[in-house]
Amino acid sequence: MYYPEPLSKLMDSFMKLPGIGEKTAARLAFYVVSMREEDVTHFARHLISAKRDLNYCKICGNLTAQEICSVCSDTSRDRSLILVVEHPKDVIAMEKIQEYHGFYHVLGGVLSPVEGTGPEDINVPSLLKRLQNEEVTEVILAMNANVEGEATATYLSRLIKPAGIKVTRLAHGLSVGSDIEYANEVTLMKAIEGRTEI
Amino acid sequence: MYLEQLHLKNFRNYTHASLQFSKHVNIFIGNNAHGKTNLLESIYFLALARSHRTNKDNELILFNKKNAYISGDLFLRGQKVALEIMLSDRGKQAKSNHLERKKLSDYIGTMNVIMFAPEDLELVKGSPAIRRNFIDRELGQMDKIYLYHVSQYQQILKLRNEYLKQLRQKKAHDTLYLDILTEQLAAEGAEVLARRLVFTHQLEKWAQPILADISRQKETLAINYQSSLPSSEALLENEEENTITMALNEAFLNAYRKIQAKEIEQGTTTIGPHRDDLSFFVNGQNVQNFGSQGQQRTTSLSVKLAEIELMKEQTGEYPILLLDDVLSELDDQRQTHLLYSIQKKVQTFLTTTSIEGVHTKLLQSPKLFEIENGQILSENYLEKGQIREKR
After folding, report:
1. Cβ of A118 and B103 within 8 Å?
2. Which residues in chain B have Cβ-Cβ distances shorter than 8 Å to A184?
3. Which residues in chain B are closer than 8 Å to A114, comparing Cβ atoms?
4. What is the spatial distance between Cα A16 and Cα A10, in angstroms, rounded to a whole number?
5. Exposed / middle / buried, residue A101 (Cβ in 10 Å: 0-12, 13-18, 19+)
6. What is the CATH topology of the domain spanning A73-169?
7. Which of A111, A182, A186 to mutate against chain B (most B CBs within 10 Å)?
8. CATH 3.40.1360.10 domain range(s) in chain A
9. What is the pLDDT of residues A66-111, one digit of tens each?
10. CB 3.0 to 4.6 Å from A191: which of A23, A66, A173, B69, for a disulfide?
11. Shortest Cα distance, chain A CAs vs residue B166, angstroms
């Protein structure tokens, strides 16, 4: 290595992040050297705090700095609805639209025999427990539209439906503002399958 | 459809090449290992974004270079479509009409090609996987929804096989999840199988008269789809077109239910389109086992020529035909038939080491490209009677 040791160690750390290769890591590391010391100290502190001060919400599995996340502790929300997502970042995407006022449940992954993830490895037991205690009337499944997501959604619906709770999932098909002429064949097929009455 | 021009940069042994093609027949002539097949491969790649020879895309990049670039102008129903593919160690980027296609499946299908190479004899002789790939490739060019179902099927199959393995090893116990994977596999399997059955019938319909013609009405051809799902052929005959998929789905579910214990024991999925096969019969005899070399050749040729017609029927345009060193493999009778049936309607690219082996008399002024060491030495239209002086 031609880099001085502290620099190459820093680069090594950057390269542990997704999407960062050697060249980007070198650029970032050199930039860190040129930063003000105060900013670097803050940066380091925030890195540690993001890891140390965050944990998963005891109720829904979302990331939070408290024991219970801000959504779960919000008493003004609609207690009859739970929206199930794969990851905490999906909650943020949903919250941005400010249209959904129910609660969430974050699985932290999907069922995947290839990855070795079974129902016990993601937050399925805690979801089922929540459904026993609370006055939930509808569960909305918002898994990603791929094979694993579909299988997980179907699996959950089989577990939940016998309890008499309505299970729905997000619509598939044309994205808003798109032209039919430019949509690909599979998207159109899904849109026709999922058509709704008006 | 026809390809008007082709540009290559760092593709295989071509540093730079630009070629203008004839609408009819183009002949690449040169000694072995100078890059004739590489040109066909590049045309194939431009159409399907993959090679017919290798799965490793970086083999296609000129040694010591970072990326390769292939582009061409296709004429489709009187309209020019610019196609480009950039290939690098990070993957490939495809553009049609100067717009990037993020999904390769959106790119594939604009340009249709049919490749006929000596190894296509394997279609009849080789392993079932070769015939399944053949169906997937040819049907996929015509029907993108089919490609989607095949890809879904393969993904679910992978999950299901893995889960069956875990059930066998008692690492997993939940059969509800297996049921769900089974249902999804049956649904996608039915979509795939229904389309394959129809495709096989159409292929047979077009191949029968061709084989009869080549054999001077002495031989008759039958193509059977051998499904691992019992009685699927009968379903095709008894069901209406719009209920066949549902009926197959039902049949798959029943079959999987019956063999569930056995599948867990074996840790793998034993029924489905991934286990199916095609068989070819000439005069009632299975050509794979009982056919002569000549019959196997005639069968492959008939199937390839049938594909051309089938593609025309499905897409409204004749595909582009790529013939890799096959004329030398065919006797006069078969060669005449081949050249006669492509005459004037199908743009054709063929490779040969010597023009003598080609019945150029049958061809309307073909364009000849002399190839040496990744260079185009000359390009000329051949007029009749001019052949001798050229070589």
Report:
1. no
2. 103, 105-106, 144
3. 158-159, 162
4. 10
5. exposed
6. Dna Topoisomerase Vi A Subunit; Chain: A, domain 2 (3.40.1360)
7. A186
8. 73-169
9. 999 999 999 999 999 999 999 999 999 999 989 999 999 999 999 9
10. A173
11. 8
Structure tokens, A85:
């997502």
CA distance A136 to chain B (A): 24
Of the CA atoms within 13 Å of residue A6, those in its CB half-sphere come to 3
The answer to whether the beta carbons of residues B253 and B186 sit under 8 Å apart is yes
H or E stretch at B322: strand B320-324
Tokens of B297: 């050749």
The range of the structural domain enclosing residue B163 comes to: 120-315
CATH code that applies to domain A5-53: 1.10.8.420
Render pLDDT for A118-152 as a digit per residue (tens, 0 to 9).
Answer: 888 999 999 999 998 778 999 999 999 899 999 99
Q: Report yes or no: B117 and B300 within 8 Å, Cβ to Cβ.
A: no
Within this chain, do residues B301 and B172 fall inside the same structural domain, yes or no? yes
Residue A147 contacts B where some CB pair is shorter than 8 Å: yes
Instruction: Summarize pLDDT for B215-268 with one digit per residue, the tens.
Output: 888 899 999 999 998 777 777 777 777 788 888 999 999 999 999 999 999 999
- Residue B151 sits at the chain A interface (C-beta within 8 Å): no
Residues B128 and B226 occupy one common structural domain: yes
The amino acid at residue A50 is: A
Query: Mutate which of A114, A185, A188, A192 to test chain B, going by most B C-beta atoms within 10 A?
Result: A185
Whether B15 and B374 have beta carbons less than 8 Å apart is answered as yes
